[in-house]
Each structure stands twice: as C-alpha cells, then as structure tokens.
Amino acid sequence: GAKRSGRGRILRFDPAMEEELHGRLSLVSRLAEAQANGQFSLVYQPQIALSDGTPFGSEALLRWQLPEGTWVRPDQFIPVAEDAGHILSLGEWVLRQACLHQVHWRDSAVGRLRMAVNVSVRQLRDGSFVHSAERILSSCNADPRDIELEITESHAMENDQVLATVRTLRGMGFSIAIDDFGTGYSSLSRLQQLPASVLKIDRSFVTDLGTVPESRSIAATIVKVGHELGMTVLAEGIETAEQEEILRSLGCDAAQGYLYAKPMPAPQFERWILDNMPARLPAAVS
Ligand code: C2E
Ligand code: MG
Ligand code: MG
Ligand code: MG
User: Fold this and answer.
1) Atom of ligand 1 at shortest distance to CA of 73?
2) End-to-end Cα distance, the chain
3) Which ligand has its closest atom nearest to the C-alpha of 73?
4) Residues in domain EAL (predicted)?
5) Bridge partners of 176?
6) Any atom of ligand 1 within 6 Å of the Cβ of 120
7) Residues 192-199, mean pLDDT to the nearest whole number
C-alpha cells in the first residue's frame, strides 16, 4: 500500500527490487487459489508456565505449501495477503481451524488448553470481524475465554476504532494478548486502555538476553510494566536454558520457544502435550 514507505516504489532500475516485486505479484495471484485448494495449514507451538514447565496453551501459526512443495514463510505472504485484502477470508479460516482444534482437544485426553490466534489489524479495521468471530465461536462451540487474540503492539495502538473493536472482543469474552511487545512505541497510558491480559516480550530481546546487557533491562522493565497493569508476561523465542533462567529470575510468567518445542502439526502437538503433561498423582488407595 501507499502508506508503507518505500515498499513497492521503484526509484531506479534494480534487479533485486524488480525480482522482489515480481515475487510479490506472483504470490498475490497464487494466494487467491491457495485457500480453495487447501494449501494452508496451521501448526501449534506450546506455551508453558515458567514456574513448573506445565504447558497451558498453544499459539496457532499459519503455514503455506505451494503445490510444487515449496513452503512460503508467513513473513513473506502475510504482508502480501494484507495488501491484497485476502487476509480477511484467510484470517477467518485461521480462527475457525484454531477453534475447531481447541474444542477437539478440550473434549479429548489433551484437555483444556488456551489457544492463541494471531489477528491482523486489517481484520480489526474490518466492520464484519466481530460478527464473523461470533459466528465462528458458536458454530465451533468454543468458549471465548479459551481463545486468545494476539494483536501486534504497533497495531493495537493504532487508533480509537481499533481500540473500540478490541474492547468489544474483550467484552465477548476473548482473551487479548499484545504481541511483539517492546518493538512498537506504545505510551503507557495507551497500554493501560487496552483490555489485554497477556504481554508477549518480543523475541529480539530474548535472543540477546545472555549477550546484550540492555536486553536484560528491557525484559525486566517489560515484566514490571506488565505486572503493574495486571497482565501475565510471556517471553517468545526462548532457545536456551540460560535465557529461560534469566527470564524466570526476572519474574516472567510464561514462555514459548524452540527450547520446548517448535510449532507442530496437530497430531504431533497432541502427542507432545500428552508426553509433557504433569504426571498425574496416583489415585489414593483405600
Ligand atoms: P509471531 O506471532 O510473533 O509468532 C512467533 C514467531 O516466532 C513464529 O514464526 C514462530 O515460529 C517463531 N518462533 C517461536 N519460537 C521460536 C524460537 O525459539 N526461535 C525462533 N527463531 N523462532 C521462534 P512464524 O510461524 O514464521 O510466524 C511469523 C509471523 O507471521 C508471526 O509472528 C505472526 O506475526 C505472523 N503470522 C503467523 N501466522 C499468522 C496468522 O495466522 N495470522 C496472522 N495475521 N499473522 C500470522
Ligand atoms: Mg503471535
Ligand atoms: Mg510475536
Ligand atoms: Mg512477530
């Protein structure tokens, strides 16, 4: 879009730029058929409590495989889908799939887990999102308290209309998480206005925890701010035991990252949960 400074604006002939533009155009045309042809799927990454390692939820992440077998990364196709308006129907599909799986697990041996779903600001700006979310909840028989909508920090702060929509969703019972926190420019007063219950520390700070002293201070500040505002703080992208230990010592509540598990297709995720559930206490013998 025109609002994205620089992107798609060709100043002079540059083969790399032209190739990127060509790639985007061909992705746009392929996006249209991808949903109808079942090329999208969801993978699930466990979220665990830092106090005792218990898994309590998962984040649903979108995957796209082209018919020739190539995987396209979300960082490549989500912005394209947003520009092309395709994110509206794709986002509905994601929410429905995620709700279906949450309910399926809730009613199976896996048990009740919270399901986090990424929502694009394009969906929040669209007048029909609240209604389609309502329809999806009731047709899946999902409890909105089990569904967490993740909104990127920069977008959550966008404007009053987006804020009003987030409040409506919260009023419907959805849990709200602020994603990629620390990378945007939120004022604390704005943050306080958001009815969010989870603050996700962006992976960039977690990655640098052991090496860049400032990252530790930033993470510590985010934990304090989140707790001050009554939120649970979750660190994303934990890859090492050292990062985990630092975050635990800072009082961070929850974590997600390759240290525990990569995002997995539903059957592997189910097995992972069953293998990593806290051992049940043996029934009392009388
Ligand atoms: P995000 O919501 O911040 O998701 C976290 C990303 O970090 C995911 O990348 C996940 O696979 C990755 N990740 C998790 N743990 C680790 C780790 O320990 N190390 C490393 N290196 N990476 C880790 P993914 O799946 O490629 O998604 C990228 C972004 O695309 C997401 O960032 C989100 O903004 C967007 N996205 C993904 N699925 C959806 C969706 O269904 N709808 C929308 N609107 N956006 C989505
Ligand atoms: Mg996310
Ligand atoms: Mg994130
Ligand atoms: Mg992200």
Assistant:
1) 26
2) 69
3) 1
4) 24-277
5) 149
6) yes
7) 94
Residues paired with residue 171 on neighbouring β-strands, in sequence order: none
Question: Is 261 a pocket residue for ligand 1 (Cβ < 6 Å)?
Answer: no
Residue having the nearest C-alpha atom to atom 34 of ligand 1 = 118
Residues whose beta carbons lie less than 5 angstroms from ion ligand 2:
118, 150, 179
Q: Minimum-distance ligand to the CA of 40?
A: 1
What is the DSSP secondary-structure string of 105-127?
HHTSTT---EEEEE--HHHHHST
| Tens of pLDDT, residues 69-122 | 999 999 999 999 999 899 999 999 999 999 999 999 999 999 999 999 999 999
111 alpha carbon, distance to own chain's centre: 21
Ligand whose nearest atom lies closest to the CA of 149: 2
Burial of 248-281, coded b for 16+ CB within 10 Å and e otherwise, reads eebebbbbbbeebbebbebeebbebbeeeeeeee
- The 10s digit of each residue's pLDDT in 202-227 is 999 999 998 998 999 999 999 999 99
Ligand 1 close to Cβ of residue 62 (< 6 A): yes
Q: Tell which one of 71, 96, 118, 155 to mutate to probe ligand 1, the residue whose CB is within 8 A of the most ligand atoms.
A: 118
**pTM, full prediction:** 0.91
Helical segments of the chain, H only: 15-34, 74-83, 87-106, 121-125, 129-140, 153-156, 160-171, 188-193, 203-207, 213-228, 241-249, 266-276
Q: Give the per-residue pLDDT at 8.
A: 52
